[in-house]
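Aim 2 progress update. The chain analyzed this quarter is reproduced below.
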Amino acid sequence: MADSWTVQRTGPGDAARAQAREQLLEAARELYGVNGYRETAEHDVCAAAGVPVEVLRQEYGSREGLLIALHNRVTTTGLRAMERALLIEGIDDCSIADRVRLLFDAYVEAVTADPREARVTFVEVLGVSAVVDEHCKLWRALWTEFLTGEAERAVERGEAEDRDHRVDVMVMVGAVHELMAHHTRRSRRARPGEVSGELTELALTMLGSQRAGVE
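Predicted structure tokens:
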């Protein structure tokens, strides 16, 4: 199948390119998420996707670039889920405990819906290269900004200690990823509610907040 693939490059909206990119992402999700990134060669991904190696290199640069793209897609899904949770009717009237729980419920549900994606996002990206580490660092910085805003809101409402929480949030973001990696590696898959409950407790502890409303 790959040998018969004709590469068409008529512009960024070209349907053949879009299809090839999606096929490569799907193949990477299966192979990186089941066999592992280090155990998956470039030609393995291309064979599973039904495209020649040339296409992977044109679209993603390398299997490392494909890993970054897949990680980016899953992590973006988690961020968008949290953003949608912030639009839920009545959330502005929720306590900090309920608000944080709703946010983590949305995030965990989104990024763990597919165990393969969870493995790629929290395990397979670790220690791959300086380039992948920098990509993950940029995402951690974005999460820090997002969650610092929530911390500042809690301070304004008198639900968290009145101090600069940025360092706390930076530590929390790292701890969240460590905890997610831990659960992803476990042979028994934890329920999303269990994981988000642990993340909520962690966040509230770091914020010096009351836990009222957390189940």
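DSSP finds nine helices and no strands in the chain. Residues 122 and 181 are 5 Å apart (CA to CA). These observations will guide the mutagenesis experiments scheduled for the next reporting period.
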